[in-house]
Amino acid sequence: xxxxxxxxxxxxxxxxxxxxxxxxxxxxxxxxxxxxxxxxxxxxxxxxxxxxxxxxxxxxxxxxxxxxxxxxxxxxxxxxxxxxxxxxxxxxxxxxxxxxxxxxxxxxxxxxxxxxxxxxxxxxxxxxxxxxxxxxxxxxxxxxxxxxxxxxxxxxxxxxxxxxxxxxxxxxxxxxxxxxxxxxxxxxxxxxxxxxxxxxxxxxxxxxxxxxxxxxxxxxxxxxxxxxxxxxxxxxxxxxxxxxxxxxxxxxxxxxxxxxxxxxxxxxxxxxxxxxxxxxxxxxxxxxxxxxxxxxxxxxxxxxxxxxxxxxxxxxxxxxxxxxxxxxxxxxxxxxxxxxxxxxxxxxxxxxxxxxxxxxxxxxxxxxxxxxxxxxxxxxxxxxxxxxxxxxxxxxxxxxxxxxx
Length: 405
Known about the structure:
The protein has two domains: 133 residues, CATH 2.40.50.140; 200 residues, no CATH class. The protein is built from seven helices and 17 strands. The radius of gyration is 24 Å and the shape is globular. It has 405 residues and is α+β, with helices and mostly antiparallel strands. A nine-stranded mixed β-barrel has the order 7-8-9-10-11-12-15-16-17. It has a five-stranded mixed β-barrel with strand order 1-2-3-5-4. Strands 13-14 form a two-stranded antiparallel sheet.
């Protein structure tokens, strides 16, 4: 069974890796191994990013930059977030760069603890395909219709049952019903007390921002020494008129709870199993699961800026518990960072004939502040409006006043 999984993953590497936007830069006809010390390890969708310091033929230190597969493919090999730590000495099997630069596409690795992931090539792994843009065009059979094309390329089984291996899938994929699976949607559930489907505009209360913070949260709680150090540096720079360390300027997602307190429309689509949200701000995405699933735990946690939100109904109130946050490049508000220990509880209700959404927040993060930090925000239903495409291009932000590269 283990060999079958390795073979399957090897085939997937030959297919999904070629689908990546930069796959053209890798020499898929060559496989090499490199050993070195890990300097960077990032595992989140859509793929693995690995930095490794090695020694070249001249005995000089050389930094290798490597790209790997998404979380699902790595997990199929038994790999998880605990498999690598910065500072570990590991061995990587990879397709090198076509340019000869130090870098490549990760195919397998051997961790510091000796565990190996796809380090034994098998016959199935030797089958690779050229990147589509590099393949010479071959006309399809004369007279072939799209119906004929569809039939010969049709998957052997429909609907497709996820194995949790597709690019961009979360660690839970393939193990539990998806929120939009027809069978999951069709399960008998009590009717929801309210439906948030629609567009919701943030109520800034700008004339009272000294009282309530507008899109931020006042008053700030007692900060830990670590939180106070960052906050003091922010205040010092800001009082001088300098921009200070907001990751969103470099197009990092605002994350929770800032996702819910940005100006402009927030589109919500409510189903019995989940509420899907798309923000006007950079088209950031969030989902609240309502289908009774349990949150991911341990090394399966897909740490990101929004966290994982699990909701349930308590009478006429939707209670949402969110955890699983990433610990870098995210703020809870300007001058106050938050990390992996952040937990958010939202109590969401509606008033004013369903036209105002009330969100009562409780934030805890013992790394950066003491105890609970509570606040209440409002969003109002807006009609005759849509959420349009919006993109954050970080190079554009360097043209803003006070910014420098």
